[in-house]
């Protein structure tokens, strides 16, 4: 077993042990309640906390905040709140940042103003900006009052940008140095700090007006002679910079393309205002992929796994209603050809094959288009060629698998005419799936919406209704 697998195994064991202790504690509380009831109002003896509760609290405080967040997300609401009460209050802020938006909302609902202010005061300005949208106004007022003037300006700046922009990912904790000082001066300055900011792979070289002049990689700083000037060893060419209003997806692609750990964020005049680090980019990519996966199924990205039934119902009704409408449309398509089905019962057995293969092919096309849009690979110049390529793939697949299905139908029902209709229907439905699999995400993208939003629901509805109409229509024309 590798070292990473061994650590992952220990982490899972710790989480499972915490869950087991939580169950033991629940049982102990039930037994204590029965015992107190049996005393019929007698004075209760002051006793020590159950051993399970003591061990549970110790194990929780030994876990990383991200592991506690993962544990909270996998527990029902009642158990989640028990765990939350046992966590040390000085870790509340870190954990609230790690949990999903829906779980964070459920935790904040059970915290009073003083607790929320104390949790927020543990965080930096850029971290507060992530948490601020979920905090009540009175909590934000208390947090603002406790911040310095510089931190208030940083928080206002971070909160002014959309959540899918670089400004929402900015980190104001960074180190800037001048180009006219020596390596020895820089090292002496760094030693006076308690620690370096996380993910510090380079220092930012600025002038007196805070304009970015270059980058000083830490590895180059450590191996240079003490009397070397920063200007002699800093990097000045091909400097990767970001703008706060820039799309965060573009920044993520830049980090992947250039293998970045951190990147400078500058304003329109080239003044250094913040940085973006790899951990923020990874979090953004993970959240975006999770949201796209939920959107593809018509689910809201703010639904808690253990949300109340009513909230889950409200989040799912809209797409279920749309799905119901499309199902009625498909049923009416079948109803139009009910006389054909009565005369040739084999049609009822074969038509799900056409619809099912069409839906699968359409979802494959949608997946490729959504991925291309996410990676910035699809442009106005190559969209037509991509559509042509997907259409050709659909035609080839339709001919190949249509032939296979046609031969199958011919052998089963001893009718080459039925086999030919199956082949033609398969070909036409796969062509329809390719066209709509391309058109749906591209249209959503042009409208400024998530291209994966409800895509699987829509393509399934189209290929079902279209497949039934094509197959039954061909059968009516040539067989009945």
Question: Which key terms come to mind for this protein?
Answer:
three-stranded mixed β-sheet; mainly alpha; 6 strands; single chain; Tetracycline Repressor, domain 2; 480 residues
Question: What does this 3D model show about the protein?
Answer:
- There is one protein chain.
- This protein is mainly alpha-helical.
- The chain has 3 domains: 3-38 and 48-161, MgtE N-terminal fold (Alpha Horseshoe); 176-277, Roll (CBS-domain), CATH 3.10.580.10; 309-478, Tetracycline Repressor, domain 2.
- It contains 21 helices and 6 strands.
- It has helices at 3-38, 51-62, 65-73, 77-86, 92-98, 101-108, 113-120, 125-131, 137-146, 149-159, 183-191, 218-223, 230-233, 248-258, 278-296, 309-336, 338-343, 346-374, 383-413, 416-446, 455-478; strands at 176-177, 202-206, 212-217, 241-242, 262-266, 272-277.
- The protein has a 3-stranded mixed sheet with strand order 1-2-3. A 3-stranded mixed sheet has the order 4-5-6.
- Strand 4 (241-242), helix 14 and strand 5 (262-266) form a beta-alpha-beta unit.
């Amino acid at each position: 077993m590798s070292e990473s697998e061994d650590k992952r195994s220990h982490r899972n064991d710790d989480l499972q042990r915490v869950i087991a202790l939580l169950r033991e504690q629940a049982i102990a509380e039930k037994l204590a309640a029965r015992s107190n009831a049996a005393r019929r109002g007698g004075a209760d003896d002051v006793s020590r906390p159950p051993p399970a509760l003591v061990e549970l609290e110790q194990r929780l405080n030994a876990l990383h905040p991200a592991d506690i967040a993962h544990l909270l997300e996998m527990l029902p609401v009642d158990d989640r709140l028990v765990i939350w009460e046992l966590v040390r209050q000085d870790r509340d802020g870190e954990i609230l940042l790690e949990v999903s938006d829906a779980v964070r909302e459920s935790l904040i609902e059970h915290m009073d103003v003083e607790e929320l202010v104390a949790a927020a005061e543990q965080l930096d300005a850029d971290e507060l900006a992530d948490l601020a949208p979920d905090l009540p106004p009175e909590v934000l007022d208390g947090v603002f009052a406790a911040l310095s003037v510089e931190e208030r300006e940083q928080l206002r700046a971070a909160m002014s940008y959309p959540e899918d922009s670089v400004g929402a990912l900015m980190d104001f904790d960074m180190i800037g140095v001048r180009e006219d000082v020596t390596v020895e001066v820089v090292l002496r300055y760094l030693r006076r700090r308690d620690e370096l900011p996380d993910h510090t792979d380079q220092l930012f070289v600025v002038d007196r007006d805070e304009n970015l002049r270059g980058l000083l990689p830490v590895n180059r700083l450590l191996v240079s002679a003490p009397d070397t000037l920063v200007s002699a060893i800093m990097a000045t060419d091909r400097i990767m910079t970001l703008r706060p209003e820039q799309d965060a997806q573009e920044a993520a692609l830049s980090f992947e393309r250039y293998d970045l750990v951190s990147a400078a964020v500058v304003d329109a005049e080239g003044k250094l205002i913040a940085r973006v680090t790899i951990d923020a980019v990874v979090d953004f990519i993970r959240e975006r992929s999770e949201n796209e996966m939920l959107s593809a199924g018509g689910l809201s990205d703010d639904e808690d796994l253990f949300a109340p039934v009513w909230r889950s119902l409200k989040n799912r009704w809209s797409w279920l209603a749309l799905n119901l409408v499309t199902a009625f449309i498909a049923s009416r398509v079948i109803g139009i050809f009910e006389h054909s089905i009565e005369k040739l019962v084999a049609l009822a057995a074969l038509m799900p094959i056409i619809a099912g293969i069409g839906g699968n092919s359409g979802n494959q096309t949608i997946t490729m288009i959504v991925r291309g849009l996410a990676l910035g690979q699809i442009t106005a110049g190559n969209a037509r060629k991509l559509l042509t390529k997907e259409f050709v793939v659909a035609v080839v697949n339709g001919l190949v698998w249509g032939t296979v299905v046609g031969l199958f139908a011919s052998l089963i029902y001893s009718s080459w005419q039925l086999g030919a209709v199956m082949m033609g229907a398969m070909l036409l439905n796969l062509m329809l799936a390719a066209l709509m699999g391309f058109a749906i995400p591209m249209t959503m993208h042009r409208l400024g919406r998530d291209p994966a939003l409800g895509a699987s629901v829509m393509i399934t509805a189209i290929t079902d209704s279209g497949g039934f109409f094509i197959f039954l229509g061909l059968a009516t024309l040539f067989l009945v």
